[in-house]
Amino acid sequence: MSDAQVEIEKLGSSEDSGSQRAEIFERPTGWRGYYHHPVTQVSMLGLVCFMCPGMFNALSGLGGGGQVNTTDQANANATLYATFAFFGFFSGSVNNVLGARRTLMMGTWGYSLYIAAFLAVNIHSGAGAFVVASGAVLGICAAFLWTAQGSMMMSYPTEAQKGMFISIFWAIFNLGGVVGSAVAFGNNFKSTANSVGNGTYVGFLILTLIGVFLPLLMVDPDKMIRTDGTRVNLVRHPSWKTEFFSLFVALKTDPWIILLFPMFLASNYFYTWQFNDYNGAIFNIRARGLNNFMYWTSQIFGSIFIGYFVLDQKRVRRRVRALYGWILVFFMIFVVHVWAYFYQKTYTRAEEGATGAYKIDIFDKNYPAHVWLMIFYGFLDSMWQTYAYWLMGAMSNDPAKLAVFTGFYKSLQSTGAAGVWAADGAKVPYMNIFLSTWCLTVAGMIFAAPMVYLRVTDHTEIEDETLMQMAGVEPIEPSLVAPAEKA
After folding, report:
1. CA 61, CA 41: separation in Å to the nearest integer?
2. Are 269 and 415 in contact (CB under 8 A)?
3. What is the distance, to the nearest Å, from the Cα of residue 239 to the centroid of all Cα atoms in its chain?
4. Higher pLDDT, 445 or 89
5. Angle formed at CA 127 by CA 124 and CA 131, multiple of 5 degrees
6. Which of 221, 96, 198, 81 is nearest to 147 (CA)?
7. With contact defined as beta carbons under 8 Å apart, do 382 and 299 qualify?
């Protein structure tokens, strides 16, 4: 029998410790109480992502990275998501060995390089290969950043707070896209070049460099105590070998996660049509900047709505909340895609790529209806991502297991994105990309439905913390949830 099989078999024979009660720790007082508070730390985590992925989103949302020719950015994103997909599968293991804070900081560097590459293209038009290469590096870095982020964001709250914490993070993170979009809109308001200027890229670059050093100011996760007094249990794996075994352990002991894989695959797929094939295709640079601003602003409200008012509704059982969330997201998919279909029928890639093609401006009569579609797409995106994270958080409270789940999420998310960005770079018709986006999002929710109905429970049990029970790993203790905080 292989070592991996031995590890897995040990899980099945572990004693049921569900009757144990977790040790309650005294939370810090004074200024340390505020600084070490889980809300403060998740807010700081959101600020890191505000500075780095937030600026990336602001740039991507302009369509073509703010360039007239979108090919370089499409190819860079295809490369980015390909490396992201590969390293994302193992990033949970890296996170569990190096620690979340180190992994988070390691992941920030790629965003500065990526934005610097676009600045280089603006100065030297022949530097497109640099953009593609920077995309490959960013894919590796992003895998580490998002895995560390997911592990911390989903393990710091109690069970009854997970929707709220995801909403707090998502709101702050998307403020990066809002601020970045506002800067781009202001800097290019009078531009007739249909691309952004050097000042926009320089501003984004400075913000991402600030984000590189922010993880140094965050509290080490092993010092974190939840609001109910339970400690955030950390993983102490003795070797990389054991860590890689955890990937198979997570799948064997919780195979329901596989039903979320189509949902994970679709979770970044829709960006290509939204940003390049809608916003980047039919609007001028001024309108693209304002659309981008409205899109990321709507994400803040969408995440707060579904996270706090639906998924964390204390008067309703968690299983029922999970069903409500599924119905809401499924309904939004059809609202935005039926609406978008009637716009997509009116233009093609060949027409919009022609010299002198008409581009919608913010002062045109048909602009308001078109920008509202971007707003609703922002709602859908934030609801989709918040719901996906909440479902994973409902499956476990174990940071090790959540890091592995996040790695799966980001790996599959990037696989889908790599494919569609490559298709966009190959000039696949807009309608083909749009219809594939619609079908994949519907399929993702249909596959997730059995998992939502059969796997999500009203409370997370100790049996769900499998990775903490592996040989050589510190055992996890069941969370002690105060009666007032029970779901």
Report:
1. 28
2. no
3. 28
4. 445
5. 130
6. 96
7. yes
Q: d(Cα 321, Cα 487) in Å, to the nearest integer?
A: 10
Tokens standing for residue 29: 């007082």
Strands (E), 372-472: none
**Percent of the chain topping pLDDT 70:** 84
3-state secondary structure of 476: coil
Encoded tokens for 361: 């401006």
Give CA–CA dist 5/186, Å, rounded: 59
Predicted TM-score (pTM) of this structure: 0.78
The mean of the pLDDT values for the chain is 84
Nearest to 263 by CA among 443, 9, 96: 443
Spatial CB neighbours of 336, under 8 Å, sequence gap ≥ 6 = 373, 376, 377, 379, 380
Task: Name the one residue in this structure whose structure tokens are 């890091």.
Answer: 403
Q: What are phi and psi of 192, to 5 degrees?
A: -115, 5
The amino acid at 460: T
* Helix, strand, coil percentages in the chain from 3-state DSSP, rounded to 5: 75, 0, 25
C-alpha–C-alpha distance, residues 17 and 475, integer Å: 10
Average the pLDDT over 106-124 and give the result: 91
Tokens 């003795």 sit on residue: 238
What local confidence, expressed as pLDDT, does residue 5 receive? Answer: 47
- Say which amino acid occupies 248: F
Q: Is 363 exposed, middle or buried (0-12, 13-18, 19+ CB in 10 A)?
A: exposed
Q: How far is CA 460 from the centre of its chain?
A: 23
Name the token pair of 117: 């590459």
Rounded Cα–Cα distance for residues 371 and 369 (Å): 6
Query: What pLDDT score does 236 carry?
Result: 52
One-letter amino acid of 277: D
- Joined together, the tokens standing for residue 411 give 């790996």
> Of 321, 323, 342, nearest to 331 (Cα)?
323
* Dist CA 65 CA 414 (whole Å): 18
**Calpha distance 390→334 (Å, rounded):** 22
Q: Which of 57-66, 111-120, 180-189, 205-214 has the lowest mean pLDDT?
A: 57-66
Token pair recorded at residue 162: 């997970």
Q: What DSSP string runs through 256-267? A: GGGGGHHHHHHT
Any idea what the Cα angle at residue 215 is, between residues 199 and 164, rounded to 5°? 95
* 46-102 pLDDT tens trace: 999 999 999 998 887 665 555 545 677 888 888 999 999 888 877 878 888 888 999
Cα 28 to its chain centre, rounded Å, is 31
